[in-house]
Write a structure and sequence with these properties.
Peroxisomal Thiolase, Chain A, domain 1; 329 residues; acyltransferase; ACP_syn_III_C; fatty acid metabolism; binds oxa(dethia)-CoA; five-stranded mixed beta sheet; alpha/beta
Length: 329
């Protein structure tokens, strides 16, 4: 990637809905308790979209902040990618809804389905388009309303998820900066470990699918945990190898925020000290595609990276999928 046009992040924005659902709120809804949730996951609270908010509304709020921070308006964009598993509807895409709302007239727009890895997949896609010269300025958003597909009678899953959106503008940056490598992958054989079975062409929505709760997230937590710990390590090592770097070059590690125990296992494997790792799962829980950009944007807002720092993002999720990137900020 080193001889190509340098492409990086030139604007950032995030949004979470106002309503907060705490662990003690959940104690009143299912048989759980704050001690279990905090010790097993690190989560203390999560934000939940208002009834009249859909994924595009969260994405829009993050997008206008990202555009403002890049000093741009919608008309400067020529590509919009929304990574999500909770689009407003099957079609039109959430990206097309945003294209209209942002006034990004004529920009290409599509949704990307790679679950919690979707944001990194989106960054890789936008970077490739821009490096090829096909487009100049892309908006990449990770946005999800997991509360809409969560069964709030299932304690195994309902404590884990939240809603939010993070957005970045991707464009040309000075030589030496920008994305240095990506490592994307999938293990489709594990798809049934984390899925929504109903509502697609295999099992269309019916009274029966609703009754049997086929429109909610199903997850085999233990198996996904094992996968997560494995690929967080392997994807990180592989993307560093591709970038010609090693773990000591990493200034800031921005992992998918699913479970603090998964993040800690990656920190140990990579021997990364706490101050180099972004953790905000306690405040937002797992927001799927929004998780990495929420962590990245929050770190940027807190001044945790300076120009020239090496930022490593890594995520894993449904598919099963993973995605990692090395970025010189
Ligand atoms: O971004 C998508 C990727 N998803 C993930 O990264 C999730 C990966 N998996 C995990 O984070 C963990 O597996 C969980 C947090 C989901 C579960 O933690 P665990 O330590 O693997 O617990 P477990 O599934 O082994 O369950 C232990 C016990 C069970 O009781 P028994 O069978 O031992 O009697 C569960 O029924 O904890 C019980 N349990 C709960 N207890 C209180 C499960 N959920 C709860 C709960 N409150 N909310």
């Amino acid at each position: 990637m080193n001889n190509l046009r340098p492409v990086g992040i030139i604007g950032t924005g995030k949004y979470v809905p106002e309503k907060i659902l705490t662990n003690s709120d959940l104690e009143k809804m299912v048989d759980t308790n704050d001690e279990w949730i905090v010790s097993r996951t690190g989560i203390k609270e999560r934000h939940i979209a208002a009834p009249d908010q859909a994924t595009s509304d969260l994405a829009y709020e993050a997008a206008i902040r990202a555009l403002e921070s890049a000093g741009m308006t919608g008309s400067d964009l020529d590509l919009i990618i929304v990574a999500t598993i909770t689009p407003d509807s099957s079609f039109p895409s959430t990206a097309c809804i945003l294209q209209d709302k942002l006034g990004a007239k004529g920009a290409a727009a599509f949704d990307l389905s790679a679950a919690c890895s979707g944001f990194v997949y989106g960054l890789a896609t936008a970077t490739s388009f821009i490096q090829s010269g096909m487009y100049n300025n892309a908006l990449v958003i990770g946005a999800d309303c997991l509360s809409r597909i969560t069964d709030y009678t299932d304690r195994n899953t309902c404590v884990l998820f939240g809603d939010g959106a993070g957005a970045v503008v991707v464009g040309e940056v000075p030589q030496g900066r920008g994305f240095k490598a990506f490592d994307l992958g999938a293990e489709g054989a594990g798809g049934s470990l984390l899925q929504i079975e109903g509502g697609g062409s295999r099992l269309p929505a019916s009274a029966e699918t609703v009754e049997n709760k086929k429109h909610y997230i199903y997850m085999n937590g233990r198996e996904v945990f094992k996968f997560a710990v494995r690929v967080m390590g392997t994807a990180t090592i592989e993307v560093l190898r591709k970038a010609g770097m090693d773990r000591t070059d990493v200034d800031l590690f921005v992992p998918h925020q699913a479970n603090v125990r998964i993040i800690q296992s990656a920190m140990q494997r990579l021997e990364l000290p706490e101050e180099k790792v972004v953790v905000n799962v306690d405040k937002y829980a797992n927001t799927s595609a929004a998780s990495i950009p929420l962590a990245l944007v929050e770190a940027a807002e807190e001044g945790r990276m300076k120009a020239g720092d090496t930022v490593l993002m890594v995520g894993f999720g449904g598919g099963l999928t993973w995605g990692a990137s090395v970025l010189v900020w």
